[in-house]
Design a protein that fits this description.
41% of the residues lie in helices and 10% in strands. The chain is an alpha+beta fold. Helix 1 packs antiparallel against helix 2, helix 2 runs parallel beside helix 4 and helix 3 packs antiparallel against helix 4.
Length: 287
């Protein structure tokens, strides 16, 4: 994206006047044909498109935004910079995360060919090597002992060509003769890092919007401040204080009282001279 076009789009994205719709549309069409030179520019374009998709000010502009977002994963500049925008949540970028057992199982069911283990974690290989014998049949275990291969090498020898390493791990955990809690504990003990590679339909922020919501085209900029929740609900009582109150409980101890009514007794800190006053210190153990 040229600097001039980028600054113009940044300036116009929060302006909602009918005479600007065609100008925005021309900028978007120009940008869709430009190859960006850095990962930062690619991600900035993605955020601009998502913001304008959330607050469109015309049907023609909305159609252009939907087209650009639908084709975003196929952009040549994104593929060239794919290593750097990882974990941004945009389409076409990988997600690195230590998914919990339930999340990993669901991802393996939906996109089995795109989920793999993050082998950049050397400590995970040691944990996996310790847990691997409990996932094997007696024949596989005997072969593993004879081959004397390390963790990932043994995994590649056992899993074959059809499954990814993550699929092999999750399928063997699912086949364990145990209940769901034990299987979940086994995955958590390995504490495996996963990589979800981009693919058709894989989770991303790019196409994420509620299809059933009514479409309203903006004629003015959205409010910049945070909404007043209590006023919207018609509440007239003042907002409760968020401070903790410290009251003397017994010599050397203080009872901390939260606005929600919870309380906890703790040794009196040296800094509290008047336990009836408010304290800026949050006591340990209270949330």
């Amino acid at each position: 994206m040229s600097t001039k076009s980028r600054l113009a789009l940044k300036r116009l994205r929060s302006q909602f006047r009918q005479e600007l719709v065609q100008h925005k549309l021309a900028l978007l069409r120009q940008i869709s044909r430009v190859r960006l030179g850095s990962a930062r520019s690619v991600l900035r374009l993605h955020e601009f498109l998502c913001f304008m998709r959330a607050y469109p000010d015309g049907a023609q502009l909305l159609a252009q935004l939907l087209t650009m977002l639908a084709c975003f994963a196929a952009r040549a500049d994104l593929r060239a910079q794919r290593a750097r925008p990882a974990d941004s949540g945009s389409a076409g970028c990988a997600i690195h995360f230590r998914f919990f057992a339930g999340q990993a199982q669901w991802l393996a069911e939906q996109w089995p060919a795109y989920l793999r283990l993050d082998r950049s974690d050397a400590c995970m290989e040691k944990r996996f090597a310790r847990a691997l014998p409990s996932l094997l049949t007696p024949q596989e275990l005997q072969a593993l002992v004879e081959l004397k291969r390390p963790g990932y090498s043994a995994l590649d020898r056992l899993r074959g060509q059809r499954d990814t390493d993550a699929m092999f791990l999750l399928r063997r955990v699912t086949a364990m003769p145990a209940n769901g809690f034990t299987r979940e504990a086994s995955v958590d003990q390995i504490d495996a890092g996963f990589v979800l590679d981009p693919g058709p339909g894989t989770p991303s922020r790019t196409p994420a919007f509620f299809v059933g919501a009514p479409m309203v085209f903006r004629s003015s900029a959205p409010a910049a401040g945070r909404p007043e929740r209590r006023a919207a609900c018609g509440c007239t009582t003042p907002e409760p204080t968020s401070f903790w109150r410290a009251r003397r409980w017994s010599p050397g101890y203080v009872r901390w009282e939260a606005p929600s009514g919870n309380s906890l007794v703790r040794p009196q800190p040296a800094r509290i001279n008047n336990p009836g006053n408010r304290s800026w210190t949050r006591p340990s153990g209270l949330r």
